[in-house]
Predict the 3D structure of the following.
Amino acid sequence: MWDLIRTPIEINKLVDTLLLTYEVEKEICEQHVLSYIEQLSREGLIQVINLGE
């Protein structure tokens, strides 16, 4: 996943890309991605930008 988030990417595009690679339900994938992104953000390893603001 690091390769996918090396450059800015929307969460939904990240999930879609992972769904093409792994056999997992979309809802489960979204939950895991959001949890992982939140953890990386808390640790200061990535910056999350809300484009809706």
Remarks:
- Helices lie at 11-21, 26-42.
- The two ends are 26 Å apart (CA to CA).
